[in-house]
Amino acid sequence: MSSQYEGGSKANPVQITEDEAAVYDRQIRLWGLEAQQRMRNATILVVRLRGTATEAIKNIVLAGIGKLVIVDTDEVSEEDLGSSFFFRDEDVGKKKVDAAKARIENLNPLVAVQAMKHHTLLERESLDALVMSVDLVCVTDWDRDGLIKINEVCRRFGKPFYAGGTFGLLGYIFCDLLKHDYIFPDRSAPTDAPRNVKASAIYSPMHMALRHRWSALTKRQTKELNPAVLHTILALWEYQHLHDGKLPESRDDAPELLSIANSLLEASDVNKQVLGTMPQEQIQTMSTSAAHEFSPVCAVVGGMLAQDILKALAAREAPIANFFVFDGTTGSGTVCRMNM
Fold it and tell me: Which of these, 18, 93, 228, 247, has the minimum number of CB atoms within 10 Å of its CB?
């Protein structure tokens, strides 16, 4: 890769060249040169290459970030072939980052790609150095305790944090953007005098967001947020915590998962007229499918994740605030504002 295309940074920004401006012309027309410049100078860290990350990486690389750092210590499995278009049959057994790097670079040669696969990268000192070297962190398909840990490191160094992933037909995105300033169009202004409005949002760290109580919501508001899906995701994280990171694998695990979900539902103080107990059919489905990836669900969640990362980088339009869930059985998604 030519040195002129090396990713810039906030500390050492580079200007978009004429060649890059021609490539990104349509995007620049959409959100402006300044927003594209911010993306051009951004270094994004993505941890774990599964289906959700694959879709997210494709979109942020095509949009024109400056540099992508990918971290994964796993090898490509046969199951990965069904959810990630970065891998081929001949890649099975190879390190994921080695198999994916060249294909990511082929998406957009203007983006620098760094692949990292050492087992110690997510240990304390290495993680600190890694987070300090990037502008935004995105962790996919990770357990709750690990996400909280990485989120806290990001907060310590003032770095925006995204988490996203899928459990079978369900998916989620969480973001902690610290204090995020952005602009959005004032749609109440006369059409002949459009103007932008500045806004700001204060985000909560993940450990605080997960303590959210639903008691302040009306019956209608609660119903619109689909609490059953969100609490199923929270229950799967708790199940992982109790089982050394493992997800349920059979219907024999359904009673324990249901008990966990109902306990979390009770603790969240959800309106009992809307959801008194967790739906058993959904829990039974998750007990057999949560550990598996479904490509269409990964595509939706990964696409939403990339879109929101680009919004945050460009500082245009309001990002997710702060927990998005997707229900693949109905094709619907909702955003829950958790302790914000």
Answer: 18
**3-state secondary structure at position 19:** helix
Distance CA 138, CA 56 (A): 10
CA 240-325-231 angle, to 5 degrees, is 50
Residues of the chain with pLDDT under 70: 1-13, 121, 189-194
Helical H segments across 41-182, by residue range: 51-63, 96-107, 124-132, 144-156
What gap in Å lies between CA 175 and CA 203, rounded to an integer? 8
SS3 138: strand
Maximum Cα–Cα distance across the chain: 63
Q: Angle of helix 124-132 relative to helix 144-156, nearest 10 degrees? A: 50
Q: How far is 333 from 335, CA to CA, in rounded Å?
A: 7
Q: What are phi and psi of 94, to 5 degrees?
A: -85, 160
Q: Following DSSP, what letter does each residue of 23-81 receive, concatenated? A: HTHHHHHHH-HHHHHHHHT-EEEEE--SHHHHHHHHHHHHHT-SEEEEE--PBP-TGGG
Please say whether the dihedral angle defined by the alpha carbons of residues 182, 187, 189 and 191, taken in this order, is positive or negative: positive
Q: Convert the pLDDT of each residue in 144-196 to its tens digit.
A: 999 999 999 999 999 999 999 999 999 999 999 999 999 887 777 666 666 78
pLDDT for the residue numbered 1? 40
Q: Give the residues across from 183 on adjacent strands.
A: 198, 316
Give residues with Cβ within 8 angstroms of 329, minimum separation 6. Answer: 169
